[in-house]
Amino acid sequence: MKTRICGTGSALPKRVVKNEDLSKIMDTSDEWIKSRTGIAARHLAVEETLVQLAAEASRQALKEAGIAAKELDMILAGTISADNILPSLACELQRELGAAKAVAFDINAACSGFLFALQTADVYIKSGQYRNILVVGGEILSKLMDWNDRSTCVLFGDGAGAAVVCPDETCGILSGVQGSDGARGSVLSCVGRRNNNPYVTNSTALSFVSMDGQEVYKFAVRTVPKAIAEALEKAGLTVEDIDLFVLHQANIRIIESVSKRLKVPMEKFPTNLSWCGNISAGSVPILLDDVNRRGLLKKGDKVVLAGFGAGLTWGASVMTW
Ligand code: ACO
What we know:
The chain is of the alpha/beta class. 34% of the residues lie in helices and 24% in strands.
C-alpha cells in the first residue's frame, strides 16, 4: 500500500509587493535582491488570515481528490506562523472545512514542515489507521519579520498550499528521509513569548526572525543533495529516473547548487520564488500545485520533494505521481 497525492491546491494573498516597492520603504534595490536570491516579488497578507488561505487551498485539493471534507480522517498543518497560539491552524481549518471527524494538529518544522507532515501522513496511511488525510503547509511570515532588517524581510512571502493523500495500490510515496540538528538551531531562529508570570522580570519586546544567511546557505547546499541521494537509494532509483524535483524555494542559488551537485539540469527544477519569495512550509505545496495545474505532472512520473529549514530540519520524499 502506498500514500498517493490525489489533489493539490494553493492560495496567495492578493497584495503583490515587488522589489521596487520595497526599495521605496527601505535601503534596498531590485538588483540586490534579484541577483542574490532570484526573488522579484512576493505576496503579503493584508486582509487575509492564514486559516482563510489554508482553507482555500484545501478546498481546491479536496475538489481535485473528489473527497468531501467530512470524509477526512486527519488534518496535518506544517506552519510556524499560525494565526493563534491556540487553537492550532489544523483545528481552525477543521472548523472552517466542516471536517468533523478529522484528528487535527500542527507540525513545527519550519521550511521542512510540509515534508514532515506528508511523511507523518504516510506513516498513518501505511499503518492502516487512517485513509484520507489533508496535509497543509502555509505561513504568514510577514508578521514575523523585522521590517527594519533588510537582510531578512526581503526574502519571505505569505501563502498556503495543500495536498489530499489517500491509500493507493500502485502510485504514491516510495521513500522518505528526515533529519534534524538542534545543535545548530541558532543560525535561523525567532524567539517566542517571554515568560511574564509574577515571579520573573522580563522584557516583553517582540522577537523577529533572525538568520545567519551564509551558514543557512552552506547547510542547505550540503544537506539537500545528500538527503535526496539517500531517499533515491531507499527507493531503488537514481537521479536519471526523476522527472521533477520540487524543492523548498529559499534562494535560486541554492537550487542551482543542488542541480549542479546532483548533475541534473535546471529544467527539472521548477521554481516559483521569483513571484512568491520564500514561504517556508508553504513553498513546496504551493509549487507542487502550480506544476500540477500546469499539467507538468503525468501519471507515473517520478517526483522528488525536498525541504530544509530552521531547527535545523530537512526532509526528502520520492514518489510516483
Ligand atoms: N538590500 C541591499 N543590501 C543588503 C540587503 C538588502 N536587502 N541585505 C543585506 N545587504 C547588504 C549587507 O548589509 C552587506 O553590506 P556590507 O557588505 O556593506 O556589510 C551586503 O549587502 C552583503 O550582505 P551579505 O549578508 O554578505 O549578503 P550575501 O551575499 O551573503 O547574501 C543572502 C545574503 C541572500 C541571505 C545569502 O546569504 C543567502 O542566500 N543565504 C541563504 C539563506 C537563505 O536563503 N535563507 C532564506 C531563509 S532560510 C530557509 O528558508 C531555510
